[in-house]
Amino acid sequence: MFDMRKAPKNARGQAATEYLIIVSIVIVIALIAMTTVSGFPSLIGGTSKARSSDFWNRADFAITAYSLSSDGSAVMLLKSRKAYQVEVRQIDIGESMIKESMKLAPGEEKKLTLEAGKLATGTSGSEYSEKIKFVYVDPEENATELVYAPEMQLVGNYE
To answer: Which residues on neighbouring strands pair with residue 145, listed in sequence order?
Structure first.
């Protein structure tokens, strides 16, 4: 049996260093396994349709249903999750700016229909990923224009 009391000082240091290296390798493997199993979105990158849809269903200005067509037309159901009435003055979808004034009461849902040519076009069936920005007036903020522009993009397939 090896007696550590009789071992030279550098042997004890080497054992401690080896132990720390083994523990750190086990921790790195555990982190990789957890990341793989849970699928951290920030590490994988990209925006899936399911994550996009889930986010926009729960957003302050929820987009509960949407359809973008290859001819640049769109239909969206917008719902306010604010605790007070707001007036939406502008909606930016990708590079397109839509000056569409509508008042939304708390929990109210309205249909927004955009004619052909209002939005970017794409091939039917191809995927789109568009940034969305709302410019609105909040009566509690002295009627100043505010911007709601989350990082999550609206993802889907052109119809």
So the answer is: 137
**CA 28 – CA 3 distance, rounded (Å):** 32
- Looking at beta carbons, which pairs linking 13-18 to residues 24 or more positions away fall under 8 Å? none
Neighbours of 82 (CB within 10 A): 17
Residue 156 identity: G
Count other C-beta atoms under 10 Å from residue 117's C-beta: 10
* pLDDT tens digits in sequence order for the chain, 159 residues long: 556 566 666 666 777 888 999 999 999 999 888 877 765 554 444 558 888 888 888 888 888 888 888 787 788 888 888 888 888 888 888 777 777 788 888 888 888 887 766 666 777 877 878 888 888 887 776 667 888 888 888 888 888
Residue 3 Cα to chain centre, angstroms: 58
The candidate with the shortest Cα–Cα distance to 130, out of 141, 114, 119, is 119
Task: List, in sequence order, the alpha helices (H) in 39-48.
Answer: 41-44
CA-closest candidate to residue 99, choices 89, 113, 111, 87? 89
User: How many Cβ atoms are within 10 Å of 59's Cβ, its own excluded?
Assistant: 17
What is the 8-class DSSP label of residue 152? P
